[in-house]
Each structure stands twice: as C-alpha cells, then as structure tokens.
Amino acid sequence: MSMCADCVSGKLEVIGGVECYTATPEGDYAKDKMVLYLSDAFGVPLVNNKLLVDSFAKNGFKTVMMDYFSGDAVPVDYLTQSGFDVQAWATRHGREATRPPLDKVIAALKEQGVEDFGATGYCFGGQCFPRSGDMSSTSRLTVSQSGHDSHPSMTFPDDFEKYVSTASAPLQINSCEFDQYFPPENFPKVDEIFANAKFAPGYERLYFEGCKHGFAVRGDISNPKIKAAKEGAFDASVKWLKKYL
Questions:
Q1: Rounded distance, CA 174 to CA 229, Å?
Q2: Higher-confidence residue: 135 or 156?
Q3: Which of 1, 38, 112, 204 has a CA that sits 20 to 30 A from residue 192's CA?
C-alpha cells in the first residue's frame, strides 16, 4: 500500500498538545499561510500521507497533518488483513472525537502567527468540508481560505447544500469512477447545487475515469493510468491552493 518509507522529509512534532506531522518548504515561503492536510482513516502512520504532506511543502506550502485519531488510526494493513472492526472504529471517531484535536492545532497555529489556511482532505478528511462549512462551526475560527477534497467519504447532496449556504471557501473535488462513498450518481446533483447557488467563492469538480476510492492517496502507481490520475489530482490541488490561498 505504501510507497518509499525512507523518502519522507518532514518531522513529527506536537502542536497544541496534538501529535502532528509537518513539512516545511525549502527557502522562503509565506509564514502566515498553512495547509491543513486532513488525512484518510490511516492517518499519520501511513507513509503515503506523509509523502503527500512533503509534496505540498515542495510546492511552497508549509503543511501540517494532525493526528485527529489520537493514536488510533485504522491499521495500515487493514485492507489486506481480516479481523479489524472498522464499524466500531468509526463509532469511536465521530466528529465529537476528531474535531477537538483539529481545533487545538488551528488555535496553536494562529497563536504562532498563521493567518490564512488552506485545507486538503482525503476520504475521511474530505468530509470535513461539506459537513463543517468553512470549518468554523465548532471552533469559532474562520479557517479555510481554500478547500480541496479527494474522494470524500460518506458525503451526500444534503451536506453540500449546507456547504453552499454556510461556507466562504472555494471548493475543489477530485471524484472518480468507482466510489461507494461518493458515488457517481451524486456528481450531477452536487454540481447542480453549486450552480443553482451561484457559489461565488468558486467550485470545481474533476473526474478521474478508471479510478477507485482512495486513488489520490493509495493508488497503484505501477498502473500507468492510476499513476497519471494520482499525479493529476495532486497537481490540480496545488493549482487550486495557489489560486485561492
């Protein structure tokens, strides 16, 4: 599942009492801007997540991935091993459990002088946008200046109705052909919601044929088509953040 474990260049550190993985650009960069990397269920332990954090840093964004699972991410071998109760895990890690660590990190970064945040969410992390608007509903902090979602988990048209009525951050979605958590039949409904609302901040949905849920993080890069899609999704997210953050 994971790529080069020895290639990571960021570091583990504690921010606001929460363990995080951070990566910093080389040379000069905007110290008052930060990208929040909202991970999939495999969290900080998954090498692929760390490599993506590193890649955002290489593109000029200081980036932080917080452990909002408090040391209890889904095991990285979950998809190849049996016996793990993912439903019980999901029950333990609802919004009431995962939102407070995120808010602590945001508050600590603001104290350090960060003023503008972009956010990029994958799978589990992707549901933070449509369900939290500008991600300020709990913390009372206006967080996201720019949002990017790749194959968000368990999001429905009603969630995006809420987003267009409460959010102020432009939103980009990377969708794919095979996704039980954000199924293709919902794509036109979501597009219509943003179009009907004339969502001023900005909206874009990209579609990657032949890919399945998780491709932007865990896609099989030995498959040229999946590799191209994974790279394309990342490049699109970087362009989106550079445009709006």
A1: 10
A2: 156
A3: 38
